[in-house]
Amino acid sequence: MDKIIIKIINNDREFKSLRDEWIQLSVESDANPLFLSWEWQYTWWKTWSENLSLQLFLLTAYHDGKLIGVAPLYIDNINIIKGVPIRRLQFIGNAWRKADTVRTEYLEFIACSEYSRGVCEAFLKFISLSDCWDEFLICDLVESSPTFAAINNKDIIGNWHVFKRDSEAGVNIRTVGNFAHYLTTLGKNMRLKLFNRRKTIAEMGEVNVHSLNRSEVNQFFVYLNKFHQKRWGRECFSGQSLDFHKSFIERIEDDDRLKLSLIVFESKVVSVLYNIKMGNQIFNLQAGFIEDFNNKISLGTLHLGYSIEQAFNDAKITSFDLLAGEGKNSFYKEKYKGEGVNFLTMQIVRKKRLKFLYKIFFILPKEYRNYLSKCLLSR
Question: Can you give the pTM of this predicted structure?
Answer without folding.
Answer: 0.92
